[in-house]
Write a structure and sequence with these properties.
It is a single chain. Strands 1, 2, 3, 7, 8 and 9 form a six-stranded parallel sheet that branches. Strands 4-5-6 form a three-stranded parallel sheet, with no helix packed on it. The relative contact order is 0.19. α1 runs parallel beside α5. It is globular. 35% of the residues lie in helices and 14% in strands. It has a single domain, classed as TIM Barrel. The protein has 255 residues and is α/β, with parallel strands linked by helices. Zinc ion binds next to β1.
Length: 255
């Protein structure tokens, strides 16, 4: 069954290419803040494969030592500000609840971005990946006031530019099974998610210009997750018509 999932995925890459839409992927990994063996393994994978990565770091918790060995293919993006759940009772987990004023959230976001930039310097890309992929439209509309040029959540985007000067590029494949153990979701499920997004783009059900985003969480990867990523990079590297985009290009502000 796993072999079939790989075949369907590869077939869809071919079909997309043949119908004139080359397959573009991008990679985001969440929850970095301190040096640890899982982060070192992520750096090794990114470094060895050369696949560009947007590393979403929690600004308030970021330790400078985490970025000492940052490979050249990685850029850092802010993952909220402190990753604290501020949801009211009954609201889904979010760092940016409706009851927090937009001004207060923008103030926190700008301070977090500046702190992270102070640590990683020019390796920072001002794209917000909100924790739990949740952020309200009123805050998105004003993100550029806090110095952001992009935003990234989960699921096919509705629009490319939700506000002037702001580009949205989401992730579409989450390789972690959050309910029930936090392990790898399995190759079949991950590949089916990716294939679904590619089909949706090819058939016009989703924005064909949005690169398909792979979301990983190095801290909770089991061996299955690590070996899947290695295979994914190998397979896509050899697939004609498929490429991994640099976050800098993915979030180039629309002209
Ligand atoms: Zn997170």
């Amino acid at each position: 069954m796993v072999a079939r999932a790989w075949r369907l995925f590869s077939d869809e890459i071919d079909r997309s290419r043949d119908s004139g839409c080359d397959v573009k992927f991008w990679w985001r990994d969440d929850d970095a803040c301190r040096p640890d063996p899982a982060l070192a393994r992520l750096y090794a994978l990114a470094g060895e494969t050369g696949v560009p990565l947007a590393l979403a770091c929690i600004p308030a918790a970021a330790e400078p030592a985490a970025f000492d060995a940052l490979p050249p293919s990685i850029v850092v993006i802010p993952h909220g500000v402190d990753h604290r759940n501020r949801a009211s009772a009954g609201e889904k987990k979010t760092e940016f609840p409706e009851r927090e004023s937009v001004e207060a959230a923008l103030g926190r976001l700008a301070a977090g971005r500046v702190r992270l930039e102070g640590i990683v310097g020019r390796r920072l890309l001002a794209v917000l990946a909100p924790p739990w992929n949740r952020i309200g439209p009123a805050l998105v509309a004003r993100l550029s006031e806090a110095g952001f040029c992009g935003v990234s959540t989960f699921g096919a985007r509705k629009v490319e530019s939700p506000a002037p000067g702001l580009r949205q590029v989401n992730t579409h494949v989450d390789i972690i099974q959050w309910k029930g153990g936090r392990g790898f979701v399995g190759a079949e499920t991950a590949l089916a998610m990716a294939t679904r997004h590619l089909v949706a783009k090819r058939t016009g059900a989703a924005d064909p210009l949005e690169p398909t985003g792979w979301l990983t969480h190095h801290a909770v990867h089991d061996e299955g997750a690590w070996s899947f990523l290695a295979r994914l990079f190998e397979v896509t590297h050899c697939a004609s018509g498929a490429s991994w985009q640099r976050p800098l290009d993915v979030f180039r502000t629309p002209g």
